[in-house]
């Protein structure tokens, strides 16, 4: 079986090691994505998100986000005045932390805070933490990022990178809301395609890109 890649449109073949659910791997941009048959309904997906304890009172979650800020935002603070937290979930904790650092933040989530998505504003910073793995149309989302970033604006992304060699045993894919997986190679493809400059990428889960348009 083959499918067009959700991100770059190239022909992608099934990953034979995993029988169910069915996944496809793109040889061009290295994206791995699930077959449409296994995508949860919006109602089921939202229900699962409401079970997350991603609140300000959860000190573990705050520590997790603080680590992201230190690694992916603070090094670029000099030119950041406004920001958008894309996919904030029911509790926009990251936005609160960044607001306390002096950034004027807005936040968007398709289920919990949908309004901002349709604005024509541009931002110095867009954050996207543990979101891209849930996205059915990554091409549209990356287009949105570029359209809503100021020139030289920063896109700071967190999503656990896949290693296609051990995908069958990878715990991260077992969450049924995780349907799309990236690697450093994927982000290098994105950067080249969308005229973004990779300012920083680690070997685990964080990529920071700057808009050169």
What features would you highlight for this structure?
single chain, 213 residues, alpha/beta, Rossmann fold, six-stranded mixed sheet, five-stranded antiparallel sheet, 5 helices, globular
Blueprint of the fold:
Layout (H helix, E strand, L loop, with lengths): L1 E3 L6 E4 L8 E3 L6 E3 L7 H9 L8 H14 L9 E5 L6 H7 L4 E5 L14 E7 L8 H11 E10 L21 E2 L2 H10 L2 E6 L4 E6 L2
Parallel strand pairs: 5-6, 5-7, 7-8
Antiparallel strand pairs: 1-2, 2-3, 3-4, 4-9, 8-11, 10-11
Helix pairs in contact: 2-3
CATH architecture label: 3-Layer(aba) Sandwich
| Count of individual helical segments | 5
Q: Strands across the major sheet, in which order? A: 6-5-7-8-11-10
The name of the CATH topology is Rossmann fold
Q: How many separate structural domains?
A: 1
In total, the number of strands is: 11
Question: SSE order in H/E notation?
Answer: EEEEHHEHEEHEEHEE
Mean pLDDT: 94
Q: State the fourth-level CATH superfamily.
A: Vaccinia Virus protein VP39
Q: Give the termini distance in whole angstroms.
A: 38 Å
Gyration radius (Cα, Å) is 17 Å
The first-level CATH class name? Alpha Beta
The portion of residues forming beta strands comes to 25-35%
The outline comes out as globular
Summarize the biggest pleated sheet: 6 strands, mixed
Structural class: alpha/beta
Helical fraction? 10-25%
Describe the model:
- With 213 residues, the chain is α/β, with parallel strands linked by helices.
- It has one domain (2-211): Rossmann fold.
- The chain has helices at 42-50, 59-72, 93-99, 138-148, 184-193; strands at 2-4, 11-14, 23-25, 32-34, 82-86, 104-108, 123-129, 149-158, 180-181, 196-201, 206-211.
- Helix 2 crosses helix 3.
- It starts with a strand and ends with a strand.
């Amino acid at each position: 079986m083959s499918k067009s890649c959700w991100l770059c449109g190239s022909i992608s073949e099934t990953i034979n090691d995993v029988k169910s659910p069915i996944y496809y791997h793109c040889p061009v941009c290295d994206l791995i994505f699930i077959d449409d048959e296994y995508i949860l309904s919006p109602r089921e997906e939202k229900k699962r998100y409401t079970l997350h304890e991603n609140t300000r009172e959860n000190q573990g979650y705050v520590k997790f986000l603080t680590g992201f800020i230190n690694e992916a935002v603070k090094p670029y603070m000099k030119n950041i005045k406004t920001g958008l937290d894309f996919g904030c979930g029911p509790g926009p904790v990251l936005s609160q932390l960044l607001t306390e650092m002096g950034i004027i933040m807005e936040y968007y989530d398709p289920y919990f805070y949908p309004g901002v998505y349709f604005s024509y504003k541009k931002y110095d910073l867009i954050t996207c933490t543990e979101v891209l793995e849930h996205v059915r149309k990554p091409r549209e989302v990356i287009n949105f990022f570029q359209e809503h970033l100021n020139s030289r604006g920063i896109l700071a992304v967190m999503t656990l990178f896949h290693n296609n060699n051990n995908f069958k045993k990878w715990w991260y894919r077992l969450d049924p809301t995780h349907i799309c997986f990236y690697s450093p190679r994927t982000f290098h493809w994105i950067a080249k395609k969308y005229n973004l400059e990779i300012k920083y990428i680690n070997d685990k889960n964080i990529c920071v890109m700057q808009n050169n348009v």
